[in-house]
Design brief:
With about 220 residues, the protein is mainly β. The protein has one helix spanning about 10-30, and strands spanning about 30-35, 40-50, 50-60, 65-75, 75, 80-85, 90-95, 100, 105-110, 115-120, 125, 125-130, 140-145, 150, 150-155, 160-170, 170-180, 185-190, 195-200, 210-215, 220-225.
């Protein structure tokens, strides 16, 4: 009498083979590289695919708090990047597109207060720029157009008083600053974002005390009057 050998369903065999292949591809094509501090705590975890950084990448302080986190696509930074202080508070957040800064970039102090705001397009400053004092009050407001100073820029003291202003057209304009009594303190001319021409300084009584000369941001002559 001939014994029958047990048989395997062909459909089940195909499905099992497919699962094994998928798991093999995942295991070989994508993996995370981990680096540790001497203390044994995790220092970084970066994902790779086919030898290139691909996916989330995170770095840690030795105390365990996250230091930086971002995302790679085929070895290029893409998406949100966050940096943190060692106390765990957010230090900055910015956005990348194909390795270039693109969008809003925010900066915070160690206490978690927003102190800076910039906007980028293709890794170039473009749009509003603002700076703030540690208490959150405005220190400066302005804007860029394709990397050049553009439009009204206003500077404030810690009490909220306007102490300086400028109006630029593609990086060219005059910046003026005032003493608290309202007298002119400094007058600076810019061309293409660089000091050009005379920079005048005045004492609190409004008397001219110094004139410096610049060309393309380089000081040429000191002239005292």
């Amino acid at each position: 009498m001939r014994m029958k050998m047990p048989t395997i369903n062909n459909s089940l065999l195909r499905n099992t083979s497919l699962i094994i292949i998928v798991l093999f591809v995942i295991a070989c094509g994508s993996n995370a590289k981990k680096v540790y501090w001497d203390s044994g705590k995790l220092q970084s975890e970066v994902h790779y695919e086919e030898g290139e950084m691909h996916g989330p990448a995170i770095w840690y302080y030795e105390n365990g708090n996250i230091q930086q986190e971002l995302n790679y696509i085929n070895g290029i930074i893409d998406g949100e990047m966050k940096r943190y202080y060692s106390n765990g508070n957010l230090e900055s957040v910015s956005y990348y597109k194909n390795g270039l800064l693109d969008g809003q970039a925010l900066t915070y102090n160690r206490e978690g207060v927003l102190v800076g705001e910039e906007n980028f397009s293709n890794d170039t400053l473009n749009g509003a720029v603002n700076k703030y004092y540690p208490d959150g009050k405005p220190q400066m407001t302005g804007s860029y157009k394709n990397g050049k100073f553009q439009g009204a820029w206003i500077y404030y003291d810690v009490y909220g008083n306007v102490v300086g202003s400028a109006n630029y057209n593609e990086g060219t304009g005059t910046l003026k600053a005032w003493w608290q009594n309202g007298n002119i303190k400094r007058e600076v001319n810019y061309k293409n974002n660089l000091k050009n021409g005379a920079e005048k300084s005045f004492d609190s009584e409004g008397k001219l005390i110094e004139v410096l000369y610049f060309e393309d941001g380089v000081k040429l002559v000191d002239k005292n009057q």
